[in-house]
Amino acid sequence: MTRRSSSDTFRAKPGARFHGRVENSGRACDHPGCELAGEFRAPPPEGTRSGEGPGRFRWFCLDHVRAFNSRYNFFDGMSADEIHQAQRPYSGWERETRAFAQNGTDPGPRWADFSDPLDAIAARYRREVAPERQDGKPLSGQDRESLKVLGLAADADRNALRRRYSELVRRYHPDRNGGDRSQEARLQKVITAYQQLRQAPAFA
């Protein structure tokens, strides 16, 4: 009878202390020829992701995820200048930070500094109920900003959105104004607002 060493037992069943381990995943290790359980997730092969989301992750046993990690190269694909910039000891510290106190008091951040697409923070802070459409479809804070850019009411439907967009494009496009490009910035805001709203749930 062959006695298994404690190291063999340890390798056969890694402890839960390993970060990222998923027990009883039901997946086999994706390394060719390996029959152990795939308990550690790794990114999908480069170039295999399609559509939205991160793509299909690979799953490896402990030994093979260690081998995968040992081959990972953070600088892969970077130019020499990009590698030099990333290796500087103060890389990432050049950005200006907000002062925490003014005259002994902290005024706090501006709401404009936060991304609040559903208007959840601002609505609660103002103790206001976010305005609703008559059809019951929700409007996010970004939806309302885009409607303001287009000059549309909260209850506008998809047909009204299309008509208003066509009207504003004709109004601001240089080809409709003898080549005058003075309204191009306004036109870009209109296009951005329309693209955002046409994908919003309220206009689906």
List keywords for this structure.
204 residues, Helix Hairpins
Task: Summarize the helices and strands and which ones pair or pack.
Blueprint: H1 6-12, E1 40-42, E2 58-60, H2 62-71, H3 80-87, H4 120-126, H5 141-150, H6 158-172, H7 184-197
Structure description:
The chain has 204 residues and is mainly α. It folds into two domains: 1-79, no CATH class; 134-203, Helix Hairpins. The chain contains seven helices and two strands. Strands 1-2 form a two-stranded antiparallel sheet. Helix 5 (141-150) crosses helix 7 and helix 6 (158-172) runs antiparallel to helix 7 (184-197).
For the report, how would you describe the main beta sheet? 2 strands, antiparallel
Strand count: 2
Order of helices and strands: HEEHHHHHH
Distance between the termini: 69 Å
Percentage beta strand: under 5%
Classify the secondary structure makeup into a structural class. mainly alpha
Number of domains: 2
* Strand ordering within the main sheet: 1-2
Shape: elongated
Low-pLDDT segments, ≥5 res: none
Report the total helices.
7
Mean pLDDT, as a whole number?
Answer: 75
> What's the Cα radius of gyration?
27 Å
User: How much helix is in the residues?
Assistant: 25-40%
